[in-house]
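Hey, I'm writing a tutorial for new members on how sequence and structure tokens pair up, and I'd like a real worked example in the thread rather than a made-up one. If someone can provide the structure for the chain below, I'll link this post from the tutorial.
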Amino acid sequence: MDISRLLLRCTGMSRLFRNKTGITLIEVVIAVLLMSVIFLGVSNLYVASRKFYIASSNKTIIGSEAQYAIQHIYKNVMQAIGDETSPPGTSAIDVPNAERVDFRINNNDPITRSNYSTVTTYSYYKSGNTFVFDDGVTTESLIPKVTVTAVNFTKSTNALTGYITASYNDQSLTFYFACHPRLASFN
């Protein structure tokens, strides 16, 4: 008797080798194809969610920068003084061109007849790819992180309206605003 047959008979392995079932090459190929389809679906979902995250992050950056600039405009224009009937250059708001606004501000509180003429001219304008605030002493970029592509100011009945269009990477957003200065009136 052969030793290998004896070992197979003793260990019960003869049954294992007698029933010759196993995985065929076709079954392996089908399993690999199914796993590839599942992997492609999951990776496409990951790529799409990553693109969505980047786009929303870029829009958030634009939004926060533009919101700061619009709040800055609103806060200062609310302090502008002058009447609609004032001559050009002395009214509350002057819009020399669509990309620039000048307005007069009086930092005295309360404003009285005696200190009414103590005013400073503030300006907002587009300069290159940035949006600038000029208070007569310092000039600062209000939106340093994003590219300002368009600015438009319009004066109508002593109100300032307009929009700022800004872009960051591949995203671009436009923000609209409207604000009214206080009017000077004394009894």
